[in-house]
Every structure is written in structure tokens, then in C-alpha cells.
Amino acid sequence: MSEMMVSAGEAARRLGVAPATIQRWVDSGVLHAERTPGGHRRIYVTELRRLIAASRPAELSGPLAAWFDVLMTGDPAKVKAALIASRQQTGAWAETADEVASAIAEIGRQWEAGACQVFEEHAATEALRRAAASCAGEMRHADNAPRAALFTIENERHTLGLALAELVMAEAGWRPLWIGEGPPADELGLLVAKCKPDTLLVSASAASPPASIARYQIPLTEVASREGLDLILAGGGSWKRDPAVKRVITFKELREALA
């Protein structure tokens, strides 16, 4: 079986560097690459894992290590207990969510480096998703609380960040309306008409193609503007800058945007 290879752009995304950096590393021999008949660079996944492993600290420490260990159990009950304990210690869901997000990112890096298996990553994220949903289900909302619809862009399956955002929003006095995986762009108007939210919180991960995000952002912004709704764009995706909307990446930033 031939060894898996990725494009220079994908290599840059996985390593968290600019595409020009990948080109420089290939030219200097830091990374080995092959060229396709069309002249495009292709880089071995094993090469990426070698660099990722070399750039990581030998051992994790502090809250990151603690979260990593509990998430890797894949046990929703243990993860929920850890969430509640962290919330009591930090005093706010935003701080807890940012800590957990760092641990999830570390699990992703471990997978990229070949230090953990796909099923382990899936078990960890699913345990967190279930634990966060359970915590959110126990929170109460005032009848007159402002309503926020939470969903991703169309064809985006990464909803874990929204699960943590739900906790932050509920604590801030909002009533989250969970939509999850993004509705088609042509249904956004119907969603607003039926759910009657005051705010739209929409997430796109770094894995989402920029073109897909841009296509979705156009009708999304139009609907929010037409209906007089606040729009918060979240996640690591490449949203286009727009002074009319709020852009957040961390959960602390989300809390501030809701104030």
C-alpha cells in the first residue's frame, strides 16, 4: 500500500504555519516532498508526524494534562464530573470551556503525530459532547431570556465547540436553541421565522474550506441584517471580516460579545 501524502496547503494547516513556510522547509530539506506530474508538491504524512512530534513538549502539565487524561478515558460520566469541578474552581463556564478546548486541540495534535488512534480521538470528543449536553440540560432559563440559535455552516460536522458555547450562553442569561449541523443556506430565513431567535451564533472550523464559509456567510449576513438580529461568527474558520457582525474565537470572547 502506498504511503499517504497531502498537499502543501493541507500540510500547512496541520502544522499551523503559512504555505510559504512549507515551501521553504521543502527547499531547505527540512521536509521531504514529491512532485506530481503537474508539478504540485505532495508531502508524506509521516513527515508531518515527525515534525509535530519533535515540536511538542515531552510531557503535558497543569490543567492541560489533567483534561487530556480525563478526556482520553472516553467516559462521559467522568468528563461531566470534571466539567462541574472545573466550573466550581474557575467560577465561569467560559474559563472551563477554553481549558477543555486546549485539551481537545492537543488530542488532535497527538493524532497528527501518530501518538493516539482515531477511535481514541472520537471517543474523547463524543464523551465531551455528551457531558456538555448533560450539563446544559440541567441549566434553567428565564421565560423571557433572549434566545440564540446555535449552528454550524452547511456541511460542517464539527459541533463540539457549540456544545461548550451552549454552557457559556446559558450562564450569561441566554436561552440557547440547539440546531447543530448547519441548515442549508436557503432555509436560514425559515429557521429565523420559526425559532424566532434574537441572535445567531454560527460556527465554522479550520477544516472548513474558505470558499464554503464565504458562500454561507453571504446569505447568513443578509438574513441577520434583514431580520435585525445580532450575528456572532465563531470557530477557527476563515470568516471574512465584517464590521456589522461580531467575530469570536475563544469562549471568553464569546462571553464578552454577549455582554
UniProtKB/TrEMBL annotation:
Pfam families: B12-binding_2, HTH_17. GO terms for molecular function: cobalamin binding; DNA binding; metal ion binding. Residues 69-131 form the B12-binding N-terminal domain. Residues 7-54 form the Helix-turn-helix domain. CDD domains: HTH_MerR-trunc. SUPFAM superfamilies: Cobalamin (vitamin B12)-binding domain, Putative DNA-binding domain. This is Uncharacterized protein. It comes from Methyloceanibacter marginalis.
